[in-house]
Amino acid sequence: MFHFDVQDSVTKSTHAGIPWLRFLRQRLGPRVHFWPFDGWEVPPGRSAIAEVYPALWSRGFARDGRTGDQHDAFSIAAWLAMADRDGSLATFLRPYLSAPDRTVAKVEGWILGVAGTLNAVGGVTMTEGKGAGHSLH
Questions:
Q1: Is the sign of the CA dihedral 131, 68, 70, 64 positive or negative?
Q2: Per-residue pLDDT, 46
């Protein structure tokens, strides 16, 4: 039995999203880079698909009448544009991780914008001065 519609569950989104990711991979082939699964460096000329966590950025932008979903999408797009312009995006694409943690993250994924290392209980320890909260200032 699967419980897809429980509070704070990502199961429904995961099961809905994986077929679309497969579709994109099949259609776009080498033109798309699934970060970090295809590597930590995004080759020039490729589009990148990465997992993001809107709560890292949405409080840093005025809502301006957008719905929650619209504001999440706006916040991610605005943060990516800012991080690209100020040069910090390249740093976020290469988070500080130990070699073993990097191996795990390449299989399990990583959230773009989180700069830190995994701790012993599976959480993230933010690297001083490089955390998500510091990038908007």
A1: negative
A2: 95
Angle at 98 between CA 97 and CA 100, to 5 degrees: 115
- Identify the H or E element spanning 6: none
**pLDDT tens-digit readout, 100-116:** 888 889 899 999 988 76
5: Cβ contacts below 8 Å, ≥ 6 apart: 12
Decide: 125 and 119 in contact? Cβ < 8 Å.
yes
Given the structure tokens 């970090």, which residue do they identify? 36
Confirm whether 6 is domain-assigned. Answer: no
Domain of residue 47, residue span? 11-134
Pairing relationship of beta strands 124-126 and 116-118 according to DSSP bridges:
antiparallel
How many domains, the chain?
1
Residue 125 in tokens: 């320890």
DSSP strand E in the chain: where? 32-34, 47-49, 116-118, 124-126
Where helices occur in 1-116 by DSSP H, the ranges are: 11-28, 68-86, 89-92, 99-108
Residue matched to tokens 């970060």: 35
